[in-house]
Structures are given as C-alpha cells and as structure tokens.
Amino acid sequence: MPDALNPAQLRTYFALMEAVSLLQYAVRQQLQADGGLSYVQFEILAKLADADHPLTMTDLADGVVYSRSGLTHQAGLLEKEGLITRAPSPDDQRATVVEITEKGRTRVAEVLPGHVEVVRALLFDSLDADEVRALGDMMENARDHMRSRPPRSAAPRKRRAGAGA
Amino acid sequence: MPDALNPAQLRTYFALMEAVSLLQYAVRQQLQADGGLSYVQFEILAKLADADHPLTMTDLADGVVYSRSGLTHQAGLLEKEGLITRAPSPDDQRATVVEITEKGRTRVAEVLPGHVEVVRALLFDSLDADEVRALGDMMENARDHMRSRPPRSAAPRKRRAGAGA
DNA sequence: TATTGTTATACTCTATAACTATA
DNA sequence: TATAGTTATAGAGTATAACAATA
Questions:
Q1: Position A116 in a domain
Q2: pLDDT at A148
Q3: How many domains does chain A have?
Q4: Which of A83, B66, B87, B120 has the most C-beta neighbours closer than 10 Å?
Q5: Domain for residue B159, yes or no?
C-alpha cells in the first residue's frame, strides 16, 4: 500500500480542490444574490421540486447535509419564508413530510437561470463535449466509491482539542 | 449563447459537486482529528512549509481565503498555537512577514500521512493513471479560467435580504 | 429498544466596516 | 491617495447532546 501520492496525483488533487472551491464560491454568491439562498437551501428546494412525491426529513438528509439538526435548522428557515411546508406524515407518525410550495417553485425558477449561467461560464466554457463526459464518468465513479466507503475508517487516530500552548 | 445546460453537463456538474463535497468533508474530518486543523489552516501551513522564503499576509491571502480579516483570524489562531510567527517586514513596514515554526512543520508532518491516505483511498482508488492526468489537465484549465474571470460579473441582479414574508 | 425529528446550545468560519499605519 | 493589516462585530452554518414521540 503506497503511502504517498505521486506528482501527477498531487497536482490533480490541488487543481481539483482549488477549481471546485472557486466554483462553489461563485455559485454561493449567485444563489445568495439572486434568491437569498444558501447552497444547502437550494439543494433542498431543488430536490423537492424534482420529486413527484413529498419527501421526509430523512429522505432529504441523504446526501444533502451531515447532521439531522442542521437539516431541521435549514428547513425551519425555508418554512419561515414560505418556500416549503412541513406536516406530520400520515403513514408514520414519527416522520415529517416536506413539500415545496408554489412560492418555493417560483424562487427556484428565479434562481436557476443565473445558477446555470455561472456554472456554464465558469466550468463548461473550458471543457469540450468529450471532456464533459469523461469528467462526469470519473466523478460519478468517485462519488459512488466514496458513498460506499464511509470515512469512519480514518476517524480515531489522535485527539487534539484545545489550545496547544 | 445557450441559456441552459445539456443533460451531460448537468450530470457532470452534480457528480462533481457531490464527489468533491464528500472528499472535502472527509479531509476536514481527518485534519481535525489528526492535527486539530481546519482545511484553511492546513493550507496556510502547507504553503509556508513549501515556500523557501517567508510570505506576507497578502501572499497567503492569494488563493487561500476570500477576506483579509478571515486570514488574520486564522493566522492569529495558528500563532497562538505556536505554529507560525508574525513579524513586521523589514522591507515594507506596512507588511507582515509570516514564518512557519518547527512546531508548525512538525504538525504538518503529523497530519500529512493521514491526509494523503484519505485522498488516495477516496479519490485515487477509483482512477487510473490516464484518468488522473486527464482530470488534472481539466481542473487546471478550469481553475485558470475561473481565476481570470472574476465572478463579479453576475453579482448585482436582484437583492433579497431579510425574511421574505 | 430503535428510529424520526426537534430543541438548546455552543463553536467555527466568514464577511463588513471602521481604523491605524506606512508607501 | 492607495495599500497592508488588524480589530470589533455580527451573522450564517454546523455539530453534539438531550429530549419527545412513535414504531
């Protein structure tokens, strides 16, 4: 098991992290400016708009956020703005059923064109069709690989908490 | 100018964002667990460890963080832990010269193996050498493209601030 | 007992604006 | 006047732990 990255891997890692950071930053700016939405809020709304049936909080949590309380917080903000509704599920009284409102759909529609434009201008302007396909294949593989390999493996190595001194 | 993304682009965009989000999450976990460092702090230390001459705050700000005060804050934390030193520059009395300490280098050395291992296991396990090269080329192009194209273009479209209703 | 979800709380990161000091 | 950096402050996002209610 090789304990280091070769130069090509290092170069790729840094370029990937930096490029995506720049993209994320631009996307967050756009969503905030055009619709007052954080990226997570946009993800929640987009997921709800895409689904043909209402989703539970657990459904939404999958892949969107890493803690339940974080999702509850974000959902609370979206509900306060009238972009989603929350109601107890008829099937399972423990579950909460989340639906997007018309106002929520409108907000997504307001934000989407600018979003698409940013992604196109920043990411896809410099990639041809073949590259887009290759990149998509690689990232789907990587994503599936990471999903199936929970990071808990590398968790408890050394603890370090307060000011070191 | 096409106002939408084609299906291949959409698929690639989402896969890229999700894969990198998972990677970032795992990397942050590892850095925190192994060295009590945020990713930005690790970037600062790595940049200093890599440079053969001391850097100014402005040097560090390039590409690491998006506001000066944020960098000042992070540098303050690192200094408090004894991982870096800050001193007025002899050349330009306005500037601050930042140097990594031995303790800082040690911390980087402690964190690096686990970091590399996470990146290798999560990202490069599913990519062969050709893919690594292709991904690196694409991401370097995209990064340079984004750097040269400041996102301010899409900034002022619509304002939306407080609670909507 | 396990699961769903919320609440309370605390902490980190980031950004804005005001300010000092030097070029 | 422009630049380098800090400070104070405020806000958003996220996580942990305790809790309530249902399966």
A1: yes
A2: 83
A3: 1
A4: A83
A5: no
How confident is residue B55, by pLDDT bands cut at 50, 70 and 90? very high
Of the ranges A41-50, A56-65, B2-11, the best mean pLDDT one: A41-50
Which residues are registered as beta bridge partners of B100? B84
Q: B107-156 pLDDT, tens per residue? A: 999 999 999 999 999 999 999 999 999 999 999 999 999 988 765 434 34
Note down the domain range covering B57: 10-138
A150/B contact by beta carbon, under 8 A: no
Q: Please, which positions of strand C sit below 7 A from a protein CB?
A: 3-9, 12-17, 21-23
Residue A3 CB contacts under 8 Å (≥ 6 apart), including other chains: B113, B116, B117
Alpha carbons B28 and B22: distance in angstroms, whole number: 10
B130 reaches A (C-beta below 8 A): no
- Main-chain dihedrals φ then ψ at residue B96, nearest 5 degrees: -110, 130
Task: State whether the beta carbon of A151 lies below 7 angstroms from any atom of strand D.
Answer: no
CA geometry: angle A51, A56, A61, nearest 5 deg: 90
Chain B neighbors of A120, CB-CB under 8 A = 2, 5, 9
The secondary structure element, H or E, covering residue A138 is helix A129-147
Q: Which of left, alpha, beta for A133 (phi over 0: left; psi -120 to 50: alpha)?
A: alpha
Residue nearest to nucleotide D13 (CA to C1'): A70
How far is B91 from chain A, CA to nearest CA, in Å? Answer: 31
Burial code (b: 16+ CB inside 10 Å, e: under 16) for A113-129 equals ebbbbbbbbbbbebbee
